[in-house]
Amino acid sequence: MTVSNAVLRERRAAAVPQGVATSMPSFIDRAENAELWDVEGRRYIDFAGGIAVLNVGHRHPKVIAAAKAQLDRFTHSAFQVNAYEPYVALAERLGALAPFSGPARTLLLTTGAEATENAVKIARAATGRSAVIAFTGGFHGRTMLAMAMTGKVVPYKRNFGPMAGEVYHVPFPIAHYGVSVEDSLRALAFLFAADVDPEQVAAIIIEPVQGEGGFHQAPVELLRALRALCDEHGILLIADEVQTGFARTGRMFGIEHSGVEPDLLAVAKSLGGGFPISGVIGRADVMDTVMPGGLGGTYGGSPVACAAALAVLDVIAEEGLLDRANEIGARLTARLAAMQDRNSLLPIGHLRGPGAMIAFDMLAAHGGDEPDGAAAKTLVQRAHQAGLILLSCGTHGETIRLLMPLTASDAIIDEGMDILERVLQA
Ligand code: PMP
């Protein structure tokens, strides 16, 4: 063996700042669909999918073939200098897939934070207004404006102020935290009365299902009420689909569960099947308010990532991944519901999530509501030792979220759930 996890951890500690934390102690060597292997040859089942990036799995053969074919033609030109067909083809496909009743346009970028920030830039240009409203517990990225919109101070905002101005937060409704849709809407009314004129608000940004915040689905009544408020005051509704997009929830986009039509959609993560690409899809009349040259980025819509993304969209259709997400969700929920009822296991509860965007909370006691973030942290470590990659999230770090590839076989999913059940033994 030429390299060990322990040696790499030492090298990493000396070369990489601690601010970029890593939850797993092992270093990855290679990966295939829903499995990965570390540098010491240990195999793991991947229930994290690189944080919601791998809905079509690690190295899907069609994605790799498309990227390789593009590598052999050209890797970069900058779309602003020399345009290329894969960017246009992807914009066409995304515009047709997104839930807009009229014509759409698509801007391609590289990261999720770039997508949410550009959605706000476009909303500001379209409305001539500056303020933005976001939700507590929401996550929209780590760059300056995205960080300001993110609704969690520790660790995302602490020591990084001042925050970008004119960003306001209202509580996201979560029943077991005691916050109802009415509470959220009342807070919005207070905000409009006390802090910001709704006629100065450019956009409301919301995740159809909060990702980092704990897989809490935005209630339909909330989304409908936001749509009505936006229409009343000329505000644009931005759906942040960075984590919910591309079949994870059993629909192409999470907002489709509500029937509410947004004005702008931010996408990233699973679009690229492992290659960095993001975008803003929006109503054509809104998108075209930005003057030529106002949008872009050197690497935005990299041709290799565009080729990969086009293959991802093919795979989602050809392999029926919308239905598969619902099947996986039903399989996970049945197993978790049985585990929830067993007193010999650590207390879990609050099973939730649409499609295969499934999560549960580690709790202080069976049948209770008190979160146990420390138990979730321990569980993730125990799972790693047992060969399963799990991710936690949520306000108190109490939530375990399952983000396995939608291309994972039943056998692999069951093997992973067996490991989960073993490490949940009290
Ligand atoms: N929005 C949401 C909903 C996300 O989950 C994330 C990433 N976790 C982002 C934005 C930011 O994406 P990125 O890390 O690619 O900037």
Question: What features would you describe in this structure?
Answer:
- The chain is built from 13 helices and 15 strands.
- The protein is globular, with a radius of gyration of 21 Å.
- The model has no long low-confidence stretch (mean pLDDT 97).
- The protein has 2 domains: 5-56 and 320-423, Aspartate Aminotransferase, domain 1, CATH 3.90.1150; 64-318, Type I PLP-dependent aspartate aminotransferase-like (Major domain) (Aspartate Aminotransferase, domain 2).
- The chain starts with a helix and ends with a helix.
- The chain has helices at 5-15, 49-52, 61-71, 85-97, 112-127, 144-149, 181-194, 220-233, 284-287, 303-318, 321-340, 373-385, 410-423; strands at residues 28-32, 35-38, 43-46, 104-109, 131-135, 167-170, 201-206, 236-240, 264-267, 278-283, 348-352, 358-362, 388-389, 391-393, 399-402.
- The strands form 3 sheets. It has a 7-stranded mixed sheet with strand order 4-10-9-8-7-5-6, with helices on both faces. A 4-stranded mixed sheet has the order 1-2-3-13. The protein has a 4-stranded antiparallel sheet with strand order 11-12-15-14.
- A hairpin with a 4-residue loop joins strand 2 (35-38) and strand 3.
- It has 426 residues and is α/β, with parallel strands linked by helices.
- 4'-deoxy-4'-aminopyridoxal-5'-phosphate binds next to helix 5.
- 4'-deoxy-4'-aminopyridoxal-5'-phosphate (PMP) is lined by residues 51, 111-113, 116, 139-141, 207, 211-212, 240, 242-243, 268.
